Amino acid sequence: MAALLPAEWIKNWEKGGKSEFVQLCRALSENKNHDVGFRDIQQALYELAYHVVRGNLKHDQASNVLGDVIEFREDMPSILADVFCILDIETSCLEEKNKRDHFTQLVLACLYLVSDTVLKERLDPETLESLGLIKQSQQFNQKSVKIKTKLFYKQQKFNLLREENEGYAKLIAELGQDLSGNITSDLILENIKSLIGCFNLDPNRVLDIILEVYECRPEYDDFFVPLIESYMYMCEPQTLCHILGFKFKFYQDPSGETPSSLYRVAAVLLQHNLIDLEDLYVHLLPGDNAIIEEHKREIVEAKQIVRKLTMVVLSSEKTEEKEKEKEKEEEKTEKPPDNQKLGLLEALLKIGDWHHAQSIMDQMPPFYSTSHKPIAIALCQLVHVTIEPLYRRVGVPKGAKGSPISSLPNKRAPKQAESFEELRKEVFNMLCYLGPHLSHDPILFAKVVRLGKAFMKEFQSDGSKQEDKEKMETLFSCLLSITDQVLLPSLSLMDCNACMSEELWGMFKTFPYQYRYRLYGQWKNETYNSHPLLVKVKAQTIDRAKYIMKRLTKENVKPSGRQIGKLSHSNPTILFDYILSQIQKYDNLITPVVDSLKYLTSLNYDVLAYCIIEALANPEKERMKHDDTTISSWLQSLASFCGAVFRKYPIELAGLLQYVANQLKAGKSFDLLILKEVVQKMAGIEITEEMTMEQLEAMTGGEQLKAEGGYFGQIRNTKKSSQRLKDALLDHDLALPLCLLMAQQRNGVVFQEGGEKHLKLVGKLYDQCHDTLVQFGGFLASNLSTEDYIKRVPSIDVLCNEFHTPHDAAFFLSRPMYAHHISSKYDELKKAEKGNKQQHKVHKYITSCELVMAPVHEAVISLHLPKVWDDISPQFYATFWSLTMYDLAVPHSSYDREVNKLKVQMKAIDDNQEMPPNKKKKEKERCTALQDKLLEEEKKQLEHVQRVLQRLKLEKDNWLLAKSTKNETITKFLQLCIFPRCIFSAIDAVYCAHFVELVHQQKTPNFSTLLCYDRVFSDIIYTVASCTENEASRYGRFLCCMLETVTRWHSDRVIYEKECGNYPGFLTILRATGFDGGNKADQLDYENFRHVVHKWHYKLTKASVHCLETGEYTHIRNILIVLTKILPWYPKVLNLGQALERRVHKICQEEKEKRPDLYALAMGYSGQLKSRKPFMIPENEFHHKDPPARNAVPATVQNGPGGAGMPTSVTINTVRLEEGTTEETDKLKEKSQGVVKVINKTVNATPKVTTSNGSSASNSKIIKEKDDKEKSGKEKDKEKKDKTPAATPEMKALGKDGKDKPKEERANKEEKAREIKEKTPKSDKEKEKVKKEEKASKEEKSKTVVTIIESKSTAEKEREKEPSRERDLAKEMKSKENAKGGEKVPVAGSLKSPVPRSETSESEREQKRRKVDTHSSPSHSSTVKDNLNELKESSAKHYINHTTPTLSKSKEREVEKKDLDKSRERSREREKKDEKDRKDRKRDHSNSDREVPQDSTKRRKEENGTTGSSKHSKSESPSDSPRLNEKEKEKNKSKSSGKEKGDSIKAEKMEKSSSGSKKESRHDKEKTEKKEKRDSTGGKEEKKHHKSSDKHR
Question: Which of 286, 572, 755, 1419 could share a disulfide with 607, CB 3.0–4.6 Å?
Fold first, then answer.
């Protein structure tokens, strides 16, 4: 602070300084601002005095000027005294004595200005002594202490009650008199004062007595409160509080109990602000810390109880624990010490002092105070009073009276609420303090809920101002908080009060489900942890739920349901959470649980919906099983439960549907399972791949036919539930979004969601997504009104381009719209012009189609690149995608079937004697009505189909533009139309096949039916491999329908000529577009068509075998599914069937342990395939096999299926087709090889039919006397299998053999008899005897027909006897193969030469034949199994590629040429000697059992392809199988033994082997089989013999 007194003034004090100082002081005194002036004067005086102390100014000069200044202010002496006081302290601390002297002199000079008393107050006693104002400072100090003690600490003695009893008696009489008259508190107060004065009473004691009397007379508030208030003016303010505190203290003994009257008095005094709560609060016990400790202890106890309940206790321990618990409880029941704070709180609430009550509650833990019932009830009562007027106005239900509640007499109580806004001020606050303890007053609970309902009504009605809206919003959020913090927790503590639950639902249903679910979430996951009582309740609920669920079965659903209901009224979230956790573990609980939920309230159903969604969204649960290939069972169980429960009970669906939509948005499709189940159960629309063809056919009819014949179960009572589902979808605008999300998610499954997941799972999810889309789309199409549907589904270009919906899904969604548009336009046109002719009708229909479809034709152009429309027109594209099976064909057989069923039903009703007549009548009427409906529907559909076909007839010329090539057109058609749609749904698969046929029948220009079918059948590997499981099933259906058509054409020349003969689709020369001339030579004739069909069958086999051999899960599964679907029409050719059978058998063996689902599929197919075997035919019956130029066809000719590039743009004729089919077998040249000469063809034909075609039959074509040289062994095989002669044209031209039909039949009977005999074990001698007899009789009866089975059985018997030989042979083979390496030179010795051929040439030829050998060994001998390891080693070394032949082409051809020449020679000889040969052969069989098997196996080896090299190819051909490998080993054994036995016989046999009949080899086989069977029971001696002979060798 700047100095007020400049140094110049002091220097020139006398001249001008003094006057300047006086002026300054005057100025400062006159300053308006009193405080500022006071401080500045103080400073000025201090500076002046300080200059004196320092010696700059003399003390008399200062005292003079101070004398002048002192008059300026009244308080100037006091200010000066303050300055002296400060200087006194400062100078006493200084060491310079002169300064202290200067100070003393100054004060002495100024004594006339300041009075002694003021100085005595302010200066130090020592200073006073030095100034001479007091004599001795020590005495002065003692005196002041005495005075202070007397003033402040000495008590005056008042009379006690016993000393002055009269005064106190008069006082009590004064206060206790009748106060009803005009006596006022003022009057009484005057009397009290008199008594105090007269009797010298203690005023504090008087106050205490006033309070005592007030306690006893609580009704006189109006008298006592003013009295105390007036009395307090005479006392110190704290007195009253101390007296009350002293009273409370008196009752704080452990045994004491504070009377409620005292609480009330304290409460009233607090309310009238006569005491402060803070002052009184400290006098009350227990302390706040003790309360907090107690609260914590309660929480711990609650948790311990929970732990006990959740612990598993063994029964022996239970009794002990119960006893201990009882003891503890008894200890607890000792009375707790009095809580005075709570007592005061209760009193405050009772008199309506909410403000102070709230303050006390705030000091305690939350809900601690209200957890004491009296306080909760008092607070409830206060709320009752506060809401009364508003409740009477808006809350009372119609017809209810209710008992009105009177307001509190006291004016300081909270104001009663007249409007919702006023509720916010106090009531909501009070409720929040109540929390869960509102449960003590159900009536108040109901009132609050009704007020909430009334508020929501007002809140939802529009028309209020903006400000009001904001207020309402605030109120709404307050209401939600109250619900969360008060209503729901209180419901938990109520004892199963269903009415409260329903009452609450009345309010809840006005909230949007988002708010409701939020509340349930809080209730379930947070509320129960907020309070010890709720913690206990939760544990008890779970305990009870466990008890009920353990005992829940189908039989006791009702009683258990009632218990569940009771439990659910109060604690639904906890109960349902537990129930759902059980359902997720045990899916067999679903049905009983669903049935037991019928006693729930509406609120509980809603909570259940929330709990289900929460369980589904549980982030801790894995949606996949541990193997990552299947959806978790918990999710499947929940989905199933969802469907059942939502169907049965009226639960709101919006939340669940929105959840699924949100999951889809997030790219997660697992939860579609739920939607699928819900739609299936609620709408009765099921999606299944297991539909029978009858059901599928029914599904192509009208709605009535679908309902009657299309579904597995009769779907009933879905009307209400499907309506509910529809409403939920429309109200929340979820119908189209769900469709679009599903359509987009299909690809999302593969490219985003799939990621690292197992292919199997990705396929499952894709199927689930797709199936749900189809199901959901079907639901919308059948349940939405047409207006609703059209309003919601945008046009096709918007769907595809804006929403990025895949085209198949977009058309699927739009199709119902087009159909409706067309029919409504058609109806309009009919009404407008009433021409009744059929022609007019058709014309109108076509017009309406044009009107509706024209914009669609425009729209689809944007879906594909412009060059697409060079080949197919937008009109064709739109037509294909917009039609359905309903438009193409009428399922007459289905209609007939259903009508017949109804007729049968009616007949049964007539025959039923027990049924009462009126019921009979009703049932018959129902059946008749249904029948009429079906017939009417059929008629309607028939007309519709005719109209559609007329329309297509007119459109067809503009369909295919073919600006590039027909091939390209077919590609576009398959790529953009057929393939996407045939895997969309089962009905679409059938539709695609029908549509192709329809396009063919319409003689559509530029459409090559032949090409189309060829492309469909030719290489199905890629399409099959890229399908999911369900798509494979649908693709199989499509192929099945395509094959059905092809098989129909193939079956009969007449049908073929009629349906394909002159059709442009069967032109083989593809000329320039626009010219489809009907030159007969360009048409594919019937026989060539049969070749083509065979090629297709071969191609299918090849693809199937490839897929089965990949080892890939998807390939194998899909091809098995497809094969199962096409079983009715494929395989038809025996050798192809057998090849497949072996492949599938191999799969069965390999996958049994590894992949059980593939094993199951393969076993299923294998069984069905076996049952189809009797219907298969040999290849030469399937298509006519022309002989080449010369008349002998060598053994290796294989009219193999299918050539490279078959008819795409080549002229098709017999020779070229034949060529192509043979070339197909050589995979290396499959695509490029051209025409091959006949001789090459015959040589080349089958070394490589790895994939299918050829059984042993096709390898040796044997020419007999008077044969046409065309009948192959397959035909005879067929004769044996079918037990009937073949009836093909070839058969009729067979000469002698054709005449032997009756003999063959007899022979077959013989075979049967023999087979039966074989089943009984016999001794070797007996066997031989029986066999000779059989042969003899057989020779007589049928010389041409020789059975196959015998030779086979003898050969195999022989094999089984020679384990040691087999091992030797295996080793020998191995060494030979290793020695020769790649240079394996065939030794083509003369057939008659006794020298055996080299192993390698044998093996080569055998390999060729073995690849198409179809007979697997009927029994495995243990010896064969021993050799498996050896076999595997050798196969590992030598197996390179299943398509590579063992020999090079040229060497192979050399061998084949030599064979060819020799076979021709011998065929001529054999024509002369046939009879004789056959007799010789018979004799051989009967004479030596050893020789026959050897020779027959030798012969089989050369004719029939048992091969040495087969050992070296593990899976060389479709016919390969583990069983086959064993068989080959056996063959090799027999071969090695047979070589050195009887060379003379061998020469003869060799002759026959190259040109002998197939029948003979079959005969031998049959024999071997038979012997083998016998051998398995008892041929040990022979085995020993062979072992020794082997050693000898």
Answer: 572
Structure confidence at residue 667 (pLDDT): 85
CA distances from 295 to 389, 527, 532, 1227 (A): 37, 17, 9, 88
Question: Hey, what are 1074's tokens?
Answer: 């626009």
Give the largest Cα separation in the chain, rounded. 181
Residues 1359, 1531: contact at Cβ < 8 Å?
yes
Where residue 69 falls among pLDDT bands split at 50, 70, 90?
Answer: confident
Instruction: Name the residue among 155, 191, 161 with its Cα closest to residue 176.
Output: 191
Closest CA to 996 of 956, 1036, 1042, 950: 1042
- Using CA atoms, how far residue 688 sits from 696, 777, 827, 1034, in Å, is 11, 15, 35, 11
Query: Is a pLDDT exceeding 50 seen at residue 1147?
Result: yes
* Angle between helical axes of 759-783 and 719-731 (0-180°, round to 10): 100
Spatial neighbors of 710 by CB under 8 A, at least 6 apart, are 695, 698, 699, 701
Q: For residue 327, what pLDDT is reported?
A: 60
Structure tokens at 282: 């400290």
The reported pLDDT for the residue numbered 1562 is 45
CA distance 55 to 48: 11
How distant is the alpha carbon of residue 1125 from its chain centre? 29
* DSSP track, 1365-1425: HHHHHHHHHHHHHHHHTT--------TT-SSPPPHHHHHHHHHHHHTT--PPPSS--HHHH
Distance, CA of 986 to CA of 1037 (rounded, Å) = 7
Letter for the amino acid at 391? Y
d(CA 457, CA 1156): 62
Query: What does the pLDDT average to over 925-952?
Result: 89
Residue type present at position 1428: L
The answer to whether 1310 and 1342 have CB atoms below 8 angstroms apart is: no
Crossing angle of the two packed helices 838-861 and 917-955, in degrees rounded to 10: 70
Looking at residue 1461, what is its pLDDT?
67
Task: Copy the structure tokens of residue 391.
Answer: 């409740």
Which candidate, 1456, 1455, 1414, places its Cα nearest to that of 1241? Answer: 1456
Checking if the pLDDT of 1008 tops 80, the result is yes
Bridge partners of 1350?
1568
d(CA 679, CA 1292): 60
Cα distances (Å, whole numbers) of residue 170 to 199, 203, 228, 1376: 10, 14, 18, 144
CB neighbour class for 982 (10 Å; exposed up to 12, middle 13-18, buried from 19)? buried
Decide: 541 and 575 in contact? Cβ < 8 Å: yes
Q: What are 1341-1350's pLDDT values in tens digits?
A: 443 333 333 3
Hey, what are 394's tokens?
A: 């808006």
Asked if the peptide bond before residue 891 counts as cis, ω within 30 degrees of 0, the response is: no
Residues 659-663, mean pLDDT to the nearest whole number: 92
pLDDT one-digit tens code per residue, 420-445: 988 888 899 999 999 999 999 999 99
Summarize the confidence of residues 1374-1402 as an average pLDDT. Answer: 40
Task: Output the pLDDT for position 1457.
Answer: 61
What string of DSSP letters covers 1485-1503? Answer: HHH-TTHHHHHHHHHHHHH
Which 8-state DSSP code applies to residue 28? H
Q: What is the pLDDT of residues 702-754, one digit of tens each?
A: 888 887 776 655 556 678 888 999 999 998 888 889 999 998 888 888 887 76
